[in-house]
Design goal:
The chain is built from eight helices and two strands, in the order ββαααααααα. By secondary structure, the protein is mostly helical.
């Protein structure tokens, strides 16, 4: 892939430009509910994970390991996962019982517990690979890990618009925290596990299953 192009005296890095466009268009496509499989979680797996892998392998011609597709520092990752799940579990035990949270998730969440758990995992796997895998590690090459951690959290937070306000307002910080865990562990796997727990736990409390 050609590295850059100059238009009107302005140089554009083609890979960075493509990543910005890609990470903007894919969530928009998702937002407008274009049906691929008939199940939202499967659609998102294709949009966020499969397309990201396509970009890495066929367009960039690189190893997914360079974008967090590995166990990384698993001891650190497991520690962050345990602490993150325990801390957020305590907070959510109270927050997820709010009227706004209950009203939103009672209308959205599957009533079958195992279906809720599995679809949430499939849904978030692609999300985490796009933001805490492809975008985090790609942006870190250009701006360093600090700015990359916050930059990848911005579109992630905006994707929560329409959810309960207290949840949406927290996601810029949650997204940055997930990015920090991914960078520290050099893997997207551990923020995925934390996010999966948080989302599943929130829904189970909100719909009265816990």
């Amino acid at each position: 892939m050609k590295r850059s192009v100059t238009i009107g005296g302005v140089e554009f890095d083609l890979r960075l430009t493509f990543l910005i466009i890609f990470s903007t268009i894919v969530p928009m496509f998702d937002y407008y509910s274009h049906r691929l499989t008939g199940t939202k979680a499967y659609d998102r797996f294709l949009l966020y994970f499969v397309l990201s892998m396509f970009v890495i392998l066929l367009l960039f011609r690189e190893s997914p390991r360079q974008y967090g597709w590995r166990l990384g520092n698993w001891r650190r990752g497991v520690l962050y996962t345990a602490v993150g799940c325990a801390g957020m579990g305590l907070i959510l035990w109270f927050v997820a019982r709010g009227e706004g949270m209950q009203a939103y998730y009672e209308a959205k969440a599957p009533q079958d517990v195992w279906r809720l758990i599995s679809l949430t995992g499939i849904d978030l796997f692609g999300w985490e690979f796009l933001w805490r895998g492809l975008m985090l590690f790609a942006l870190a090459r250009y701006f360093g890990p600090g700015p990359a951690i916050w930059l990848q959290a911005v579109p992630f937070a905006l994707m929560h618009l329409g959810k309960p306000e207290i949840e949406t307002l927290s996601t810029i910080f949650g997204g940055a925290a997930f990015g920090f865990v991914a960078w520290q562990s050099q893997s997207f796997l551990y923020p995925f596990l934390i996010h999966w727990f948080i989302s599943t736990f929130t829904q189970l409390i909100a719909i009265g299953r816990l």
